[in-house]
Amino acid sequence: MDRVGAVIQDVEIASVGEIFSRRPRGLRINETEALVVRAMTDDGRIAARTFYLCLKPDGTVDLDTIASGRSRARRRRLASFLKYYGLISRDERYNLREAVKGWHGKQVEAMRDCDLIFVP
């Protein structure tokens, strides 16, 4: 797939209940928040990516979880996104709520065909 450059325009942490009236099938009970990242591509389109996770009350997230299956895969996708774009330096306890404030204007890559932010 071809990739194009993009710049993060909007980052939002929302409750799954705020986004969906009913919990989507496949989401686990421990995935209570959604991190929504939107970026403007070089050719003027909006690319987005949503990561489902569980934030602790202090805003931190553990990127390695004891959960298995799809929940673990989603958490690893988030960790891969953060490491690939240099948004994290270590992966122990990461305060995501504070970190997203500095993401505006960061460079990312988007896939040309499907308007998704690229995550390796």
Task: Please name the defining characteristics of this protein.
120 residues, globular, two-stranded antiparallel sheet
List the helices and strands and how they pair.
Elements: E1 3-15, H1 16-19, E2 33-41, E3 46-53, E4 60-62, H2 70-84, E5 93-95, H3 96-99, E6 107-111
Antiparallel strand pairs: 1-2, 1-6, 2-3, 4-5
The major β-sheet equals: 4 strands, antiparallel
- Chain-averaged pLDDT: 88
Q: Give the helix level as a range of percent.
A: 10-25%
Uncertain runs are none
For the termini, the CA-CA separation is: 12 Å
**Element string (H = helix, E = strand):** EHEEEHEHE
Beta-strand content bin: 25-35%
> Over the alpha carbons, how many angstroms does the gyration radius reach?
14 Å
Number of helices: 3
Structural class: alpha+beta
Secondary structure: number of strands? 6
**In one word, what is the shape?**
globular
Strand order of the largest sheet: 3-2-1-6
Q: Summarize this, please?
A:
With 120 residues, the chain is of the alpha+beta class. It has helices at residues 16-19, 70-84, 96-99, and strands at 3-15, 33-41, 46-53, 60-62, 93-95, 107-111.
What does this entry look like structurally?
Helix content is 19%, strand content 34%. Strands 3-2-1-6 form a four-stranded antiparallel β-sheet. It has a two-stranded antiparallel ribbon with strand order 4-5. The protein has helices at 16-19, 70-84, 96-99, and strands spanning 3-15, 33-41, 46-53, 60-62, 93-95, 107-111. The radius of gyration is 14 Å and the shape is globular. The mean pLDDT is 88. The chain has three helices and six strands. With 120 residues, the chain is α+β, with helices and mostly antiparallel strands.
